[in-house]
Design brief:
Helix content is 53%, strand content 14%. With 201 residues, it is of the alpha+beta class. A 5-stranded mixed β-sheet has the order 1-4-3-5-2.
Length: 201
Amino acid sequence: VDQSLFDIVMVLDADNIMEPGCLRQINNQFCKGCRVVQCHRMAKNRNTSLAILDAISEEIRINIFFSGQRAFGLSAELIGSGMAFDFGLLKSILQNKRIQDSPGEDKEIFLQLIKQGVTVEYLKGAHVLDEKVSNLTVFKKQRKRWIESQLQIIKRFFDPEFKLMRNRFEFWYRLFQNLLLPRSFYLLFLPLFYGIVFILE
């Protein structure tokens, strides 16, 4: 594909809905020189307790790893959808066979962006509505795939490809971030922790 034909690629899940004004905000950021933008993904449904839990978990992640990281001058994370890329940049990154074979392609793309020194901007006001998981079986399958991709990306940090990045703060910060347990684990451990403290007292 002739990359001169397009400026921006918008990556969405099939069930995503962009709220009015979303594309305008993205376009404004690209006009300012941004090359990658992550929109604010929000829950489209809150029909079950599992969907509500999923929505809360994602909103916590967004506030810490999107808004928080940008406040400190670091890139916002990529979340898998609601993402906008410079067309030429994304095309070049997707040539990497690692990304094509990865179960967590957004993490691999993000690693390549860090390597190239590209900052991911976060647009809090650009809302993309996303269908939250309502079925426990699907939830378990999704989390299993996420853990698999997390373990895979941790190994990638030690590949020779990223050796020159090891003198940069962001490299070690991202490695530490990927070593953290999934947020749903902490929700399980917190009651257990308080239970142990209560028994010991």
